[in-house]
Design brief:
6 helices; about 190 residues; alpha+beta
Amino acid sequence: TLLISSLGQIDDVNKAVTMPFKDAGDVIYVIGETKNELGASAYYRMLAEAQGTPENYGGTVPAVDGETALKRYRAMNKATDAGLLKSATTPTKGGLAVSLALACVGGQLGADVDLSMLDVEPDVALFSESNSRFVVTVAPEKTAELEALFSGLAITKIGAVVERKELRIGDSVAVELDALIQPFKETLYGV
């Protein structure tokens, strides 16, 4: 069954999946393809502003493959309906870097992540805003079931949730959650 009706309502609120990481040991996946689609992204906008050319944030913008996206969304609905997902979010603004940071902050849990298996350049892996992607977590004993559900679709295991309050992304990023909280609060409260 589809969890979100045509009216945009959740049919069973008990099956709603939220963004924050839930439990240390959960496995983190990226569902969908991460492509070199940084055009008009938050990252390119930041770079253009830093270079004094705020209007110059071009590049390849995210494209949508409607047929594949629909298959992916249907699989997400099945995973949600089956209770496989512990957390889920979309990296549509700021890419995986922002999604992972927000999921860590929300759950007050860290993550150890390796984005090298996405097979793109590091800046693309971190900041691409490719459409129809999800960052999800699943209990370790449910990984085979999740992977089977997404058979034939792009799904990549990228790491695990950890108790330590630090987000580590390969050898390039290691940031304490406390350092992420203030910038996040600034976007909400302007403090």
